[in-house]
């Protein structure tokens, strides 16, 4: 069952329901596409991060080699000077040879644990007794790298490599110290041929220790702060796995950074790259991940809708328009063209065409049958009218041959009643529908006929009529016509008793009284000598009064006959019947009374 809320102009359309079904069917595929896209993006990001970290490591290869070489020289020198520590000249000679042989070493010396250095490549003694670096080395004697923005010997920014000198007993005698100037690191970086990254050198290559202190900087340690991420101190990366991220520098530039450990907890490398490195290789940098699955979902729905529109919906609409027009009464509508429709719709179209042909044929036969029935019924009314007129003519001949006034009076009453019946059948004969009669036309004809028959040279008749347009069934038209004839006859009898010379004035009205009811009223101003009860004009047998009561009973109406303020009144209030289809279960005679 479809809820009523989904039966509106939009939700009830076949196209909308098909699109909804397709959307539901494609939703799992869209979710799967999103998952696959996310997985692909994750793999691409992982490959990009690995490539960027590798490229950063490759770009820092000269600096890493320099640091490794310096650390190795420090360890080798510590082993070399151990035998000559007692000979200051020999120890100084070793240090001078080292600086002379290697250009990257600007200073070499042995610093005892008390800080009073006598063995140095400069040949001059120097005291480090109060140096914080010496105090730190004494508390934790191990190989170390420190940075001094202004070396005490060279006066420039240097990277100091310290190596403890230990004798056979394990006693720390002092430390070999080698100084490498930062300017030695100012050289071009190595670049790879990795196609996944653009050919661009990093903005900065920085090494830092486990405390977050910068050890080396390719472009100078003095300006290194301007090239680092502004919101993340270097100490935050210590102990963390290799990572890449995008951040803003203190100058406001967006850069891509790569951080990895060279010696965990001791030496780390940070590279800064142009931000387009990430944007060029990352799909999520161009569009959000959900855009592609959504676009595929929408495209699939569009293809499904176009297919449904071309194969089904347009044919269904054409068939619907034709059916609606045919059901609305149009019999000239052409069947829809379903030549390129699917077989099922073509079968429906063929069945619809056969149904149209059958309905049109049956309607033609029914119309022909009704026409023949109407012609026969008209002929019946015509023959009845002719027979009644023949009977009236015979009565008229008999009335002329009658000797007594009583006989002529009786024959004239019968003659008028027969002519009223003939008038009704003539109206039925002239009516096109044959199902009911225009009461205003019928009553007007009867009034004219009675007035014509009742007029004479001694009496002038003046008649006022007022009729509403009311249709009556034949079962009501016949008794109503006879009742009007009888009422007019009685009214003329009353008017015949007037003694004044004025014209006889009759008033006949037939109008709606209430929904489903009608009122017939005949009035006549009585003569002065008339019976105030209104009964003197009725024939002595009382037949007229009985006929009025009988006709009123046949019409299921309420009859009033009498004198009201010197006026003779005949008034009938009755329900009007309306036609119902033949064979209706509620009315065997085909007519029912209108609701009152």
Shape: rod-shaped
The biggest sheet, with number of strands, parallel, antiparallel or mixed sense and barrel status, is: 5 strands, antiparallel
Give Rg in angstroms. 63 Å
- Termini, distance in Å? 43 Å
Seen as an oligomer or otherwise, the chain set is single chain
In terms of DSSP E residues, the strand content is: 15-25%
- The number of helical segments is 11
| Number of E-type strands | 21
Instruction: Quickly give the structural class.
Output: alpha+beta
The proportion of residues forming helix, as a percent range, comes to: 40-55%
- Mean pLDDT, to the nearest integer, reads 79
Strand order of the largest sheet: 3-1-7-6-5
List the helices and strands and how they pair.
Blueprint lengths: L13 H46 L1 H21 L6 H14 L5 E6 L3 E2 L1 E2 L5 E2 L4 H8 L4 E5 L9 E9 L5 E10 L22 E6 L4 E4 L25 E6 L5 E10 L3 E8 L1 H6 L9 H37 L15 H59 L3 H26 L6 E2 H16 L6 E7 L3 E2 L1 H22 L8 E11 L2 E9 L17 H12 L3 E7 L2 E9 L1 E3 L11 E3 L3
Parallel strand pairs: 14-16
Antiparallel strand pairs: 1-3, 1-7, 2-4, 5-6, 6-7, 8-9, 8-12, 10-11, 11-12, 13-15, 16-17, 17-19, 18-19, 20-21
Helix pairs in contact: 1-6, 6-7, 7-8, 8-9, 8-10, 9-10, 10-11
